[in-house]
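Folded chain entry —
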Amino acid sequence: MAAPLSIKLASPRGFCAGVVRAIRIVERALEIHGAPVYVRHEIVHNAHVVNRLRAMGAIFVEELDEVPPGAVTVFSAHGVPQTVEQEAEQRGLPVYDATCPLVTKVHLHGGRFAREGREVVLIGHAGHPEVVGTLGQIPAPVHLVATPEDVAALPLDTDSSIAYVTQTTLSVDDTRGVIAALHDRFDDVAGPDVSDICYATQNRQNAVRALVEECDALIVVGAANSSNSNRLRDVALSLGKPAWLVGDAGDLDPQWLDGVERLGVTAGASAPEELVEDVIAAIALSRKITVSELDGIRENVSFSLPAALRRAGEAARARA
């Protein structure tokens, strides 16, 4: 057996309040209405979460035309464009909206800036469901940028009144760079600095920064299509430490740990803790390990379920 390995766990890691709320919305809808419940897009970006809910009776679709008439429907945590909301209303679908409240806050900021007559810039990654939803929630043309080079290419005069909002799951450092580029190019820029990047994203990135100070390499547990999980790996790489993203223990490559004596482990905001435990157990098959957790922020944030879901639950209890 190889040399002993010290594993240090980031704190916080894994599920955030928005993810917990979204998953609970699907679970509660199934409890109240029974299967099936239709979910537009993956409720959160994690195949293990999706497969568990699918086994309970959730059916995941990409477009509303896949939902039968009258079927209970849930919008994912990433949010949807207004056109999707309107289509659901026109079809009379009973909808529970699992959009993360912090994503909704971005929508509200963007709408306010548009009503003020500003050119709205969204910092985010093209095609990501949250970005698609935000673009479709702001009632004005929106300029999408991801890099300072994108800012330089914007077809706007330097005296234009600009306002920006951000995808919630980006790297704080990358977003600061784009915000700085906006301020460098335009005279009148409004925006919330990095406060649109959610507390969970910031906390998990800060935890990685602390973790890499004490580790030789980092493993991030999270899905390949999870933006916040990818950004955690990027943070470690930017600080000069090897880092790998794994969906579960099956993705581990033992060669990664050759010569590693101190390994950091964290998880994206949509990754269940049991996946972290499985990764540690897999490593323990070939290495003698010790496991400890770094001190970090203890999150006590929680979001209430949608009022419509609470009312449906009360009605179900009254009928029982």
